[in-house]
Amino acid sequence: MNMITSTTGTNSIDNGEARPQRRLSNIELLRITAMVMVMLYHVFPGTIGFSYERIHDYPVDSVIGFGIESLSVVCVDVFVFISGWFGIRVNTRKLLELCFQTLFFAVLVYAVLLTIAPEKYLHWDAASTLLCLHADDYWFVKAYIGLMIFAPVLNTFLEHSTEKSLRWVLIAFYCFQTLYGWLSINGVSWIAGGYSCFSFIGFYLLAHYVRHFMPVIQHTNKYVWLALYLLIAFGQMLLASLLTWWNIPVAGRLFTYTNPLVILQTVALFLFFRQLKFESNLINHIAKGSLAVYLLHVHPLVLHDYYGRWVFDLYQSEHRLTFTAAFVTLMIGIFALAVLLDGIRRRLSSLLIGRFAPKT
Fold it and tell me: What would the mean pLDDT of 115-120 be, rounded to a whole number?
């Protein structure tokens, strides 16, 4: 997650968007919030997990875990919705900067791991992560690059479509995706539960429709949208807990990016943040490193071997308050390190890419 901004900046994916003249701190705060959700989502359920046995042995912990998952599941959809809201304008430099940023962190992380444990990582399977050759290697970046490639075609369609034509495309799209990418989660494998460029395209179109053809809902009181977001999260938490308690193993279906309730929840959260009004240079600065946070902790050799293991060990060995304090400290540390490293990356990017792909 990662990743997207509403204004001028040097973050690679940020640069793919048509943005207003200044950074909007409310949208920047949403990006930071969504990245925190990404980190939480990789813990609940990504690391700790849920089961029939667990909810009976630790019911309070399990319900809280489902609550965190219910609040965080919108993380990826939020980033793509922001892109659709402002639109993506692609050129060679922007695409190169995204590729360079991904490669920078892939090489950096692999070099560090190779230094500390060469016997574990000096082989082709580990080295191939540099080019993201496995299906789960930085899947978001690969899906987003696909969206960037299609963006000119999508923009041309959106510029010439009427409200009615776009509405029917969206109805057809979400009927198809809901049937084959949610109700029948493997009905069409390439939808991949929303982990795909296909789903990103749908969100891109939906965001454009909400912005340009649904002005009434945009001006609904922001607390109505916050209440809707929280209400859906509470309902998802309750239903997941009950299904797991009854040993009906379908709770995971609730927490896929293709769940229509998750999609509605995403729109509600965005519209809440959109109505916030404030300016913060600190928020704007931290948000520049959102994609870097993703690239650092979701590196395929880090997520499970280190990030996930550390969090799980803390969860197993520490009191819940101690675990919470340690985990929050870990997240802050990852954010700080990622922002620092991304500042170095931006300077290198300006020097290397700027030579043959000047800003337009």
Answer: 91
